[in-house]
Amino acid sequence: MTQGPEDDDTSDTLAERKMRFLFALRSRGVTDTRVLTAMEKVDRGLFVRGTFSDRAYEDMPLPIACGQTISQPSVVGLMTQALAVNPRDTVLEVGTGSGYQAAILSHLARRVYTVDRYRRLTRDAADLFRQLDIPNITTITADGSFGLPDQGPFDRILVTAAAEDPPGPLLEQLKPGGIMVLPVGQSDAVQSLIKVTRSARGFDYEELRPVRFVPLVEGLGSE
Hints:
Elements: H1 5-27, H2 33-41, E1 62-63, E2 69-70, H3 73-83, E3 90-94, H4 100-106, E4 111-116, H5 119-131, E5 137-141, E6 154-159, H6 168-172, E7 174-184, E8 191-199, E9 202-211
Parallel strand pairs: 3-4, 3-6, 4-5, 6-7
Antiparallel strand pairs: 1-2, 7-8, 8-9
């Protein structure tokens, strides 16, 4: 089939948008080569559907089903960078959402477990992982605030919803030497992204930057 001028324009525009997307990540502090490579491999456009699909390569959060959001790409990159995932790590993600973050983690870790309280989100994400032939992600519908004790402990834990404090069950499921990255705050307007490292002495906390995430809610969603 012969490609017409319009097809060329569309292709060039998409390539340019993806190039600007990666440039925006670097300019906002995502400098880890492995993280950037993973984010280049995962096409955010596949995880943004409907009305906002044409904004998939902009550095902004976007609405998805069940009243949730797909996070701002630069925040995804900074959280992933702070998590410092090693190739042999087992990672727990709390808050599957669109599946975008888990797909990125799948290129960095040995195994990713992702959990969400909304069955619709986990079902759609699992379908997409199958289409993309990503075999090392296990998607589970459950109350993520309790973690996955049967699968733990974990080398790394990433939480994509804000709690007032790091949930105790998640801290317990973090291996010695493990890292957890999560937003904390008492309201959706005042939140901080923190990095928790489990050491022989207990837990060390490092505040990274202000953020804004949906709240971490206990129980299963209705959708």
